[in-house]
Amino acid sequence: MTDFLLELRSEEIPARMQDRARADLEKLFTAELAKAGIAAAGIVTYATPRRLALIASGLPQATEAVREEVKGPRTSAPEQALEGFLRKTGLSREQLTERDGVWFAVTERPGRATADVLAAAIPAIVRAFPWPKSMRWGAPSLSSESPRWVRPLQGIVAILGEELVPCEVAGITSGYATVGHRFHSPQPITIGGAHDYVEKLRLAHVIVDQDERRAIIRNRATALAGEAGLTLVEDEGLVAENAGLTEWPVPLLGRFDAEFLDVPAEVIQLTARVNQKYFVCQDASGKLANAFICVANIAARDGGEKIVAGNQKVLAARLSDARFFYDTDLKVPLEEQAKKLEKIVFHEKLGTVADKVERVAKLARWLVEEGIVKNADPAHAERAARLAKADLVTGMVGEFPELQGLMGGYYAAAQGEPREVWEAVRDHYKPVGQGDEVPTAPVTVAVSLADKLDTISAFYIADLPPTGSKDPFALRRAALGLIELLQANNVRFGLFLAISLSMARVAATVSGAEWAEKFRELVRARTAAGDPMNPDEYEKTRQNMIERARSTEELDAFSVRVEAAGGAVINFFADRLKVQQREAGVRHDLIDAVFALGGEDDLVRLLARVHALQAFVTTGEGANLLAGYKRAANILKKEGWQDDALPAADPHVPTLAEAADQSQPFGDEPKRLPQERRVIEADLAGGHIPQTGEEDPLAEVAGDAHGVVGETFTPEPAESALIAALDEAEPRAARAVEAEDFEGAMAALASLRAPIDAFFESVTVNDADPAKRQARLALLARMRAAVHRVADFSRIEG
Questions:
Q1: Cβ atoms < 10 Å from Cβ of 235
Q2: Which helix (H) or strand (E) holds 188?
Q3: Which tens digits make up the pLDDT trace of 29-66?
Q4: How far is C-alpha 85 from the geometric centre of its chain's CA atoms?
Q5: Which has the closest alpha carbon to 662: 356, 277, 274, 345?
């Protein structure tokens, strides 16, 4: 067994590609060796800005001979079958082996030297390497068949043990030589093999192990900050990036003018991080200090003084630009900035950002006025929503899009907006990912919920939902953020109602936007045909299309789209809830069991029910009740007994005619329908949220409510016991569910365990007497209905 070293040296590899490249190199190398039946005992990969390396240990000197046998058609099969088999194997009829009336293709591959396998594998790896971006270079690049690499390939080291593995890629032949640090040790270095590769390069001022470089940067930067009486602001992503930019990292501490600290700390940190790859520091009070740490790629003779001085000048220029943007933005009130949003397209199918702001403002106010988000001023919620997107047109956010929302908060505070308003402007995007802070300030919660509801509704109305692994508009993230907001703040409301109202308003925008585009297409077509509209014709056509966009027929057509999309969004939230709760240890089948009841779209209440259900089914009583339920359900299914669970009531979706018309694509003044407020109130009072109910499963059975048909027989003791248990458990469970005491509801169901077990042990359901059989089936249906008041146990696995 021996070790193999492969180094592919090139011009600078982007830092962001290096980790992925190491993984791809190992994957491709393993696959190429597997084709020859070779597996390494261990593989280690390295990446620096100028090289990608792999060390494979425990390789054999040669592969073993392999005999392969492929079964073909029978000798009596049609000639076409044999011809197809011959084409597949590449053999002739004479080379086949016949055994027991069946043709076999038998091939024997002799053993190969591992060096030969590697020599063939290296060019294959280079050709197949999946760089996110790659290039051709030199004379061979004139052909599309030339090799590609992330940057021009400059050298190959391929050594098995201490023997060279000869190969050639893009005119570059393998050898023993590499080079060290570009400045400290640019001369060629002869490598003896995998055993001395790392240390020889270290002597040449190259640390090939990326983890070691990261540790040097992390530890030295922390120490430098400590020596200055400061604390390093940790940034692991920046550590990795600097390690990918250097082969001999040397952290250095510098200073910038303290006057720049008047600029928001986040701006300074982002300027230093994004533009210059610098770390920043905090003082003892936790405030940003006028210090930064850069990472040089050279050990300077003067200790880095000139390097620090140069970096201080560059950072000063960057911070001057940032202060200019900040001061300039402060001169324009956010309310004025917001007017520019009318010229920014949110999405070609969904109107402008101004359209979205109008919808979000109304929805945020509604959430507060209806008491869904408590302890908030509706005027503050609407004001914050109208200002929340204004910073998108500021110079600072144009330079640093990552600061959207945050800068709006700074500007709103500077212009004297109430604290509740500027905090909501600052934080309304949150939470933006797993582990992000979840807002709890009421006004912020209202605006954040409204923004996320509108985004999800908009793209579903436009028929642009997430598909598979693609989610270009981050709807999954928006849904998870909305769920976290509801949970953290115990916000109670019917999701379907909010989605429907939001969708109705979005659909009004979409309707107007589509007719606006039709109008523009008509104008362009007439102009292209040499028959442009005169002013009178232009205005008349425009007014006709405005009326068409607002017509009842058009709005009703869009209402159908709202209804279709509403159910899809609820299913989408169910899937997101499963993902979110899976990490909390909640079983997805239990979420299905509660969603299947229909009408349960208060996510806070739904999760409380799911958690109680999970606690119950993991107990002995719960497991036995589930077994009894499934046995009863199977009997009823076999007998064709219709499921007693009622489908959810058909929810009312607000029509577009009922929603506010906010899409002003032709330049009209905004128009409000006078009945808008009445529509919302009617939705809330008119049973918009589907209600769960169960019809009496014995409604069509003659006899009393206990399943005794016509008093023609006396129930057996176990039968009577189950009836009595249901008489007690059903109302208890119903009262508990009504009071949202789901643990109490589960306890009521638990009392059915023993009677159900006894019933199946001593009672014959499929009795020869039709009356007994019908009554007992009805009793099982009653038990199933009682269980369904809490959850659909048919969805529970196990």
A1: 17
A2: strand 188-190
A3: 999 999 888 899 999 999 999 999 999 999 998 877 76
A4: 46
A5: 356
